[in-house]
Amino acid sequence: MALRYDNRVAIVTGAGGGLGRTYALELAKRGCKVVVNDLGGDRHGSAGSTSMADKVVGEIKAAGGQAVANYNSVEEGEKIVKTAIDAFGRVDIVINNAGILRDTSFINMKEVDWDLIFKVHVKGAYSVTKAAWPYMKDQKYGRVVTTSSNAAVYGNFGQVNYSAAKHALIGFSKSLAIEGAKYNILSNTVIPTAGSRLTQTFMIDALKPEYVTPLVLYMVHENFPETGGLFEAGAQWYGHLQYYRGEGKVLENATVETIHDNWKAVSSMDKPKHVASISEQSAMLMEMLGELDAKKQAGGSSSGGSSSS
Ligand code: NAI
After folding, report:
1. Which DSSP state fits 141?
2. Atom 19, ligand 1: residue with shortest CA distance
3. Got the DSSP string for 82-123?
4. Is the CB of 212 within 6 Å of ligand 1?
5. So which residues are the catalytic ones?
6. How buried is 65 (Cβ within 10 angstroms: 0-12 exposed, 13-18 middle, 19+ buried)?
């Protein structure tokens, strides 16, 4: 069964090149009406031109699809959403994809390097999604995909600013998923790996942006079954990334020495567990507190520490 997007309207930010362009082209090919947003600046966030977005709109139209260009920075989300409403009357899909780099070691990082990265990635995703949200809420339908990075998860030299911003987006997307649930708005995060202007990788053929496209397209389709998820794509590999935590150890009235003496157990990842939600996390703590309380009432003490499960 071909997955189609007829009667859907998508905003793809930073769609004038790289990954965003492939999302825009593929969505349009499958019947979606697309707002091709791109500021048209360089990879460090300087300058700007209309030509990048126009070129992609031209490609879409030449292939028989429907698209309109928008040249605003993602910090001006309302203007981008207005383009969608003016041209197509609704907005169903937001792909927060626009991005820049200001790589430099932390010692050499200037405030402008920090601020600009946060403005484009974090404020940009906020601004576009915030403006689209009321439409999605009213129509009880929305698909939001936000773009993070391996640098967020693993860290990377010269990318303290970028890693921080990209990790902020994971929290952004997860909390949006919780707020969107009752309105049928799904929010998920993608971690792509692709040869593009940003990465300037030499493995350009093995890391085609087009290899990321199918996952992101599915993530914004009406059949997508997940929300609050983090999914990876690159080099024709697709997967799911989750946080796991260790079993840990209960240490009553701990001192720094107790932590030192029990470090092996505290830091152990021998029995990893995925915690699916903040309420599951709180429930685990409450259960553990209940056990401690019961022990106290029974007159016992676990000063040597007992495992929490
Ligand atoms: P790219 O540089 O080819 O595309 C980014 C696009 O965003 C450019 O066309 C640029 O003009 C546009 N843009 C920049 N600032 C903008 C703004 N303020 N408003 C509107 N448009 C703006 O880069 P690529 O690789 O396609 O990256 C897309 C996204 O994927 C970015 O968020 C990037 O951080 C992320 N990413 C990419 C990876 C990769 O391997 N290519 C790895 C991890 C994350």
Report:
1. -
2. 73
3. HHHHHHHS---EEEE---------GGG--HHHHHHHIIIIII
4. no
5. 162
6. buried
Structure tokens at 199: 């990465």
Q: What is the CA radius of gyration of the chain?
A: 23
- pTM score, two decimals? 0.94
Roughly how many angstroms between the first and final C-alpha of the chain, as a whole number? 44
Q: What is the largest CA-CA distance in the chain?
A: 79
108 Cα: distance to centroid of ligand 1 (angstroms): 23
Can you list the alpha helix ranges (DSSP code H) found in the chain?
18-29, 51-62, 77-88, 111-117, 124-139, 150-154, 160-180, 213-219, 256-261, 263-267, 278-297
Total count of residues recorded for the chain: 309
ipTM of the prediction greater than 0.90, yes or no: yes
pLDDT along the chain (309 residues), means of 10: 97 98 98 97 78 97 98 98 98 98 98 98 99 98 98 98 98 98 98 85 84 98 98 98 95 96 98 94 91 84 45
Q: What angle in degrees, to the nearest 10, is found between the helix axes of 124-139 and 77-88?
A: 40
Cα–Cα distances in Å, from 60 out to 17, 77, 153, 208, 251? 13, 23, 34, 19, 61
Task: Identify the structural domains of the chain with CATH numbers, from first to last.
Answer: 9-240 (3.40.50.720), 243-309 (1.10.287)
Ligand 1 center–CA 242 separation, angstroms:
24
Ligand 1 midpoint to CA 147 (Å): 9
Looking at this protein, which amino acid is placed at residue 47? A
Contact 117, 102 (CB under 8 A): yes
